[in-house]
Design goal:
The complex is a heterodimer of chains A (298) and B (153). In chain A, 40% of the residues lie in helices and 15% in strands. With 298 residues, chain A is of the alpha/beta class. Chain A has two domains: 138 residues, Rossmann fold (3-Layer(aba) Sandwich); 150 residues, Rossmann fold, CATH 3.40.50. Chain A has a five-stranded parallel sheet with strand order 7-6-5-8-9. In chain A, strands 2-1-3-4 form a four-stranded parallel sheet, with helices on both faces. The termini of chain A are close together. The mean pLDDT of chain A is 94. Chain B folds into two domains: 83 residues, Alpha-Beta Plaits, CATH 3.30.70; 52 residues, Aspartate carbamoyltransferase regulatory subunit, C-terminal domain (SH3 type barrels, Roll), CATH 2.30.30.20. Helices cover 11% and strands 37% of the residues of chain B. Chain B is built from two helices and nine strands; from the N terminus they run βαββαββββββ. Chain B is elongated, with a radius of gyration of 17 Å. Classes of the chains: A alpha/beta (298), B mainly beta (153). At the A-B interface, helix 6 of A face loops of B. The structure holds adenosine-5'-triphosphate, magnesium ion (MG) and zinc ion. Zinc ion binds next to loops of chain B.
């Protein structure tokens, strides 16, 4: 049985395989082709934390492939979970479905769930830990929009310290021949330990100095909670905001990505440019999740 | 300088080449505290040609279990165990840190699922040795610890 718990469990070949498979599902994801290969299968969505996008895109992926979905929302989870351990919940729910998608506030919850499940587990975020389907859809977006993964230059912008999206993505990017620039305030720099671990061509930079070189500008949100006071937050967040001005020297082919939801780190004026790919990126979550669902369930 | 810092023991165990300063922790692992009846001698920060400085522990009338050995290896990967019989070294071997330890280290991450008491979960760590440094990675949250001594259960 195959689970998808952490991007670190996948090697370069596994990743390339999933991305290739996702490509075959794109027209199905758009509703342009009928391909009900998961007919008769049931997916259990086990969300112990609120999520709209991730849960919906799994649901869409499953339904477009002819399967059905059982949903357990965060509110239900809290009442079910009263007195019941995660281990027991998973043991019960794995008897009701053919695979489980889990989101949970505790790190390692998905791996622990897998150890207690009779069906494949897909991690849809375990606290500050892993969110591998996000990483796969990020890689898919880059591959589709830039045409390749090897040989590209990526600037990661914003909160590089706490963002799990960034931590997973940077490790995956390091598997390919990528050049990575880290653009963040000092207080939100990538943890030193991660820097040692990934090796490769990674360096800190100011966006204005490297923008001409960049193929992918990956922007994340800088959260207010990370700062001691409102003033400081506004100052810092403001200086990492992407506007028409910040990207005026960018290559024509440069793309801007964002895991969404965005607050104001990308100026809506940027949406109309050909660089903006964040909504496309959200759509790509569907074929990628189709590839993963069919992989674990068939 | 003569190696023998303290008197010879007749039966028991000599743990040599303990990382300097870690002898007290080894005592803790062995469950030896102020209430012990055993004859124990300890030398800390003695000069060592191999390690610069080292600690040595000698415990009369006690042999060490497998579990204790693996814990000692985590904090002193170069330790040598000398089993003494009739004042002579009967057997000498080096400790070997296990690659995986269950129920030995506690994850310092408060948000790690392995710290939820109600769940049927055993803390598991993967051990790695680089030069003389031992580090361990949590099976669940992926967190890495370097100061293993502070996390032994
Ligand atoms: N009967 C004994 N009582 C107490 N300590 C002893 C006894 N016999 C040996 N030792 C101690 O055991 C340790 C190992 O003794 P050994 O004679 O093998 O030294 P060595 O040749 O330096 O060994 P190594 O290569 O392990 O350092 C030394 O610290 C020594 O003082
Ligand atoms: Mg010696
Ligand atoms: Zn942990």
């Amino acid at each position: 049985m195959r689970h998808l718990i952490s991007i670190n469990d996948l090697d370069k070949e596994d990743i390339i395989y999933i991305l290739k498979k996702a490509e075959e599902f794109e027209d199905v994801a758009r509703g342009e082709r009928n391909f009900k290969i998961l007919e008769g299968k049931i997916l259990g969505n086990l969300f112990f934390e609120p999520s709209t996008r991730t849960r919906m895109s799994f649901e869409v992926a499953m339904k477009r492939l002819g399967g059905e979905v059982l949903n357990m929302t965060a509110q239900e989870a809290s009442s079910i979970a009263k007195g019941e351990t995660l281990a027991d919940t998973v043991r019960v729910v794995s008897g009701y479905c053919d695979a489980i998608v889990i989101r949970h506030p505790l790190e390692g919850a998905a791996r622990f769930a897998a150890e207690n499940s009779s069906v494949p587990i897909i991690n849809a975020g375990d606290g500050a830990g892993q969110h591998p389907t996000q990483t796969l859809l990020d890689l898919y977006t880059i591959k589709k929009e830039c045409g390749k993964l090897d040989g590209i230059t990526v600037a990661l912008v914003g909160d590089l310290r706490y963002s799990r999206t960034i931590h997973s993505l940077i490790k995956a990017l390091a598997l390919f021949e990528t050049k990575i620039y880290l653009v963040s305030p000092d207080a939100l720099a990538l943890p030193e330990e991660m820097l040692e671990e990934i090796g490769g061509d990674v360096s800190r930079a100011r966006l204005s100095e490297i923008i001409e070189e960049v193929d992918v500008l990956y922007v994340t949100r800088i959260q207010k909670e990370r700062f001691p006071d409102e003033e400081e937050y506004k100052k810092v967040a403001g200086s990492y905001r992407i506007t028409l001005e910040t990207i005026k020297n960018a290559k024509d082919s440069m793309i801007i990505m964002h895991p969404l939801p965005r607050v104001d780190e990308v100026d809506p004026a940027v949406d109309k440019t050909k660089h903006a790919k964040y909504f496309q990126q959200a759509f790509y979550g569907v074929p990628v999740r189709m590839a993963i669902l069919s992989e674990v369930m068939l | 300088m003569k190696e023998l810092v303290v008197n010879k023991i007749r039966e028991g165990t000599v743990i040599d080449h303990i990382n300097a300063g870690k002898a007290l922790l080894v005592l803790k692992i062995l469950g030896i505290d102020v209430g012990t009846e055993l004859t124990v001698s300890m030398a800390m920060n003695v000069p060592s040609s191999k390690m610069g400085k080292k600690d040595i522990l000698k415990v009369e009338g006690m042999y060490i279990s497998e579990e204790e050995l693996s814990k000692i290896a985590l904090i002193s990967p170069n330790a040598t165990i000398n089993l003494i019989k009739d004042y002579e070294i009967e057997r000498k071997f080096k400790v070997k840190p296990p690659e995986v330890v269950d129920d030995v280290l506690k994850c310092p991450n408060p948000m790690c699922v392995s710290n939820v008491e109600r769940e049927p979960v055993r803390p598991r760590f993967y051990v790695k040795i680089e030069e003389n440094e031992v580090s361990a990675r949590c099976h669940y949250c992926g967190g890495k610890i370097k100061d293993l001594a502070n996390h032994i259960i």
